[in-house]
Amino acid sequence: MEKGELLPVLDSSIEMIRRISGSSSDVLINRFVSGGVHCALLCCEGMVSASVITELIFEPVTDIPRQSSAEELYRYINEELLLSTDRPQVEDYDTLFRLMNSGFAVLLADGMDFGLAFGVQGYASRGVQEPLGEGNIMGAHEGFTETVRTNMSQIRRRLKSPELVMEMLRKGEKSHTDLCLCYMKDRVPEALMDRIRRSLDGIELEAILTTGYIRPFLEKRSFEIFDSAGTTERPDVLCSKLIEGRAALLVDGVPYAIIVPRLFCESFQTLDDYAYKPYYAAFIRWLKYAAFLAAVLLPSFYVAIVMYHPELLNSTLFMLLADAEKRAPLSILTEALFALLMYEMIREAGVRLPKPAGGAVGIISGLIIGDAAVNSGLISTPLLTMTALSVLSGLVLPELAPQLTVLRLAFLIAGGAMGLFGISLLACGVLVNICATEDYGFPYTAPFSPFRKRGMGDTAVRSDIRKLQSRGFTVEEYHE
Amino acid sequence: MNEINGRQLGAMLLISDVYFLFCLKGSISPAALTGFLAASALQLLFALGTAARGGASVRPRIFFLGYSVFLGGLVFSSLWSVGGMIYIPCENGCGIWGRLMTAALIAAVCIYISHEGIKPAARASVIAAAAGALCLAADLAGSVSGGDWKHITELEGRGMLSETVRGFALSGGTGSFAVLLGSAKGDRAGITAGYFAAKAAVSSAVLLTAMAVAGRIAEITERPVITAMQLSQPFEAQRIDSLFLVMFVVFAVFTAALYMITATRLMKELFPRFEKYRSAAAAVLMTAAALVISGRELLLLRAVLAVSALLLPLTGIKRSAAGNSG
Questions:
Q1: Which of A80, A252, A379, B72 shows a CA-CA span of 20 to 30 A to B218?
Q2: Which residues of B touch A312 (CB under 8 A)?
Q3: Same domain? A314 vs A429
Q4: Last residue of some domain: A262, A288, A316?
Q5: Ordered domains of chain B (ranges, CATH)
Q6: What is the pLDDT of residues A291-316, one digit of tens each?
Q7: Chain A CA closest to residue B107
Q8: Where are the beta strands (DSSP E) in A185-272?
Q9: Contact list, A433 vs chain B (CB under 8 Å)
Q10: Could you tell me which chain A residue has the CA closest to the CA of B241?
């Protein structure tokens, strides 16, 4: 809503501000006389630092000698006083409210149709803490916070290059959320940045409260199983992506950054890989690839083979499974669905409940319900073992948790309904969906398909750091 | 219009060739292998001419459309025929409805693949082909350790000409090769040579494995290659048939998808006003073709069509050259 330019008469201006804000109780208006001119200092309660505003603004401003006019007063403040390093000029009420709600104090003087704003932010915010979702053993233990400026400083501290560009944007009709587009200007082609900016221009939202509000605007296709725009809560990971020629978007109020473009192989890489010896890092990577397949396919293969293809089992295993399953009252597919859905419910309960209660849910479900279900014969031990192994494998790749959960269930139903034939059909569909995922001309499945031999050094294995550094990789190599 | 690269085109075509090799009926012998290799060599010669042409001209497009539908029908038909061997739950015991349901499910996946376009299909084909190569390597390893290679010399085959015709007939990719080569980036002659060399190598590996493992059983079994894959067990304690079953169905889907993509592409060029439901129309035509084929192998017809698919673009070159000189 256009609220117009500032009124020169102070009383009218204050009346207008009260009307626009609905006399909101957190809008503080302090009237005083400075240099013989009637003034008002406006700020938003809780957004400014009381000590900073007193020391840097009130004390110097109230000591200003008598001035001949309001213009002289502004000139004196601008030229004689250093009240704040961040001092934008305010000419309309939209800007006034935006700045005030961002932690600025705004000075209005009677007779002037513009105001002076001073950055005196002092709102409560969470400090830099260890990220919860991206565990790291050998790397830094700092994560992003909810304050975009803090996050920008964390990146700048790690990348002191002047090539690092941070462009501020503001989106959200109501929220006026600050976004920061970061990239290394010597690594990212300008054409890619233009396309990303065009995508961001298309954002028409009332509020941006999490990264999920923005990601659909950066992801081109309507139905992607996997995310082609990634997220991270680690500044060191983000810096490594920027160096590889990617762009990142920081969102104020969200301790996660969005990274574009994102590749499938990145889900299997961590910063720790570069701290370990290459042979161990390669081993861990292959372990993760195996874990991905186990997380998606293990229950479905079990159900399909036991239900439709028992001839594929050797006799010992067949007898073992037959003995276990004949005591279970439910069909194998029902059992498996029951076990998986129960796990998902328990997991969701553990996540949403307060932490002490969440822990208790884990113990109750794992030890009591699980044990009771097996002892009562409701679920067979082999099936529960397969389900547990599958779930455990999924925990190896926490950022793929939503996809793994849904794919595991879908493959289970396909395997239970049509055996290996069903699993194969679904696998084809999923494979093509993954291969069709492509944003800004970067295939999600690169460097596997389209195959890039040079990319194998940091996907199939982990080459020596000197070799990786010397080849000067940027993600542009995968562009099609 | 370079949408895919040579490696991706090669993977798509190789999958279809290997699929038809899996479905091969009748005995296999060293003569069959020689026939296949001879057929591949002759196809390479014709295909190099097609590569020089770069794609099909307008007139053969109708032929290629019909050929793609026919081959798609063959995929469904052969899948119905081997349903008992690879055990498709919804097909066994449900008669014609089970068969139609199998076809409908495969068609649904193929329509989705076709809807996504040739690029994703080509990328996925490379991954599927790599997984297939691993599966084949495991079977080959099983045949090396457990197979009896003296079987190979004991097997009696048909005549050389007959085996060469069979080699031509089981080439699933010639039609799509001629149509899609224009979409591939890179040196077309190199792509052609690479594809046919890989085809010869893979065919040799599959047939040698089948001969070594199945031995004289190959003479009495209906589908010797599938039997050999089921018999080849490289690990003593664990069967790997499940891997083969998955690969077989995946190859079937990608083969049918290749023909559907080829058919829809040709439909788009031939009937530009027919925009919607092109893939669905292709799927219906393929299912109808499968019902007409009804499990028959039609080797001679397939061989003639495969040769025609490579020769027709060449006649286009001659005609255009004559037109230019006139």
A1: B72
A2: 239, 241-242
A3: yes
A4: A262
A5: 4-315 (1.20.1740.10)
A6: 999 999 999 999 998 888 887 777 78
A7: A425
A8: 230-232, 247-251, 257-260
A9: 116, 120
A10: A312
